[in-house]
Hints:
Mean pLDDT: 91
Strand order of the largest sheet: 1-12-3-5-2-4
Low-confidence stretches: none
Helix content: 40-55%
Shape: elongated
Oligomer: single chain
Distance between the termini: 67 Å
Structural class: alpha+beta
Number of helices: 29
Amino acid sequence: xxxxxxxxxxxxxxxxxxKTQLPDFQRGWVWDDNRIKALIASITNGYPVGAAMFLEYxxxxxRFKYRVLEGSPSKGVVPDELILDGQQRLTSIYASLFSSExxxxxxxxxxxxxxxxxxxxxxxxxxxxxxxDAILSIPETKKVTSDFGxxxxxxxxxxxxxxxxxxxPLNIILDPYKYLNWQFGFMQYYNHDSxxxxxxxxxxxxxxxxxxxxxxxxxxxxRDTPKEAVCQVFENVNTGGVSLTVFELVTAVFxxxxxxxxxxxxxxxxxxxxxxxxxVVSATDFLTACTxxxxxxxKASNNSVVSCKKKDVLNLTLDEYKYYKESLSEGxxxxxxxxxxxxxxxxxxxxxxxxxxxxxxxxxxxxxNNRIKIASIKDKLKQWYWCxxxxxxxxxxxxxxxxxxxxxxxxxxxxxxxxxRTIQESFFNPGRLxxxxxxxxxxxxxxxxxxxxxxxxxxxxxxxxxxxxxxEENIDIHHIFPKDHCEKKGYPRPKWNSVVNKTPISYYTxxxxxxxxxxxxxxxxxxxGQVTSEKLDTYLETHFIDVLSCRADDFNVFFLKRAxxxxxxxxxxxxxxxxxRDSEETIRDFGGSLKRETE
Length: 599
């Protein structure tokens, strides 16, 4: 890496000639008219506008497709360097201060417009005038009009009109040949009048000459920089604009072989990832899964190391992507089906989006001979999944865990004694039930899914909350002993606001419940003739609710009994015991032991 200041005139000449271009992962130019004016004001004042970052072109390992900056005429030229950071600034500078074409920009409301930029010479030399007030944005016609175009307010459509209004065209300011010609015409227009001569001399001293000496700091990465380093460095320095992701880099690499990865992903989203749950899968997630799948299969053939870290994703080949993209997409769809079987119906209720990556890869691998349809195999996959959720194993950096899980689960299916690391390491503390206060936590969402999986029925309609009911009846999570009632009774907030006192019910049922004690709202439901007492009791039981304590408004007994049943459900899902159910700490926090009532 090297750092040096580049004179703006040399830099713009390099852009114009095509020696400096953009990698194809950079998005389109998006700066609006006001922001361009502010940039011009800063540069003409000599203020710094930030460093740019370039990459020397020519590394065979980083075969990025490239394109010229908007407005540059030099198509088909092989660049010397690519702009990694600074595209918006450099494109704005080139378009407004160097190119002879009108600048394609937009209004502050996003409407496309074309503009030329001028500077009012009289205002520019006046130290009492803010430089921004001296910068003018003029339409492509070079006429400013009002009254729907019928009245011309300003006209700079000829050089003489520019001279007359002392408005200097900024797109010639970096080309000495052009601005000297303009100066000659300006002086002739005023017959070399002393006041005109003085104005141009002051303008040249305060604006033109400093502009010719203006420099922009440029950090240049040499052509041997690895792809993962390019991505990491860019992420570290790019605090504005469009973030460069692994997907953007792979897109640029694949583009060299005329494959439009972005278009392929957009089509894939429409076909496979158009549901609420799968909509959370990003393009980078898909590439990571594809790399993991390819890496796992390579291991089977050449005993290589399975890995899906950033550097591995960046080294994914186009042939590998093409080979796996369809089967992997189907794998994500199969993973969604399993989640729905486990009563996870929406993205907001998905415990971990990241766990979808290894799950989809496993579903893809198990699609061979339809192994994913075998109940015993699917049960093991579900056990692994719930251990990840209730063990809260997917909250940090996950690339290594992806590998552990895919390799571990596949080995486990061949050898029942080879327990995957996530299952071995998963652990659920009974006290965690108290700290699960909102759906921000994976385990909280997991508990709600287990309640739904128990064929939970709505208190009023009695309808089982399956996928169709979930979508049609606006199912959400609400308190069983309502908040208002608990606060009036002075129950401890850590208890009444925990997952133990919450359950999924419909919006309508929650409105009927209101803020009264359970005995009151249950009677209200019955008195309206909406459900019999006996039926209502069976509906409550599907939510792991102890009917007697609930009807008696005995919060403490209700809380203890429900905590016990929830732990039973968690144990069943994880396929392993929850330790400490009758520890001193548990008894103190819950007011009693949480051991199974049969124990």
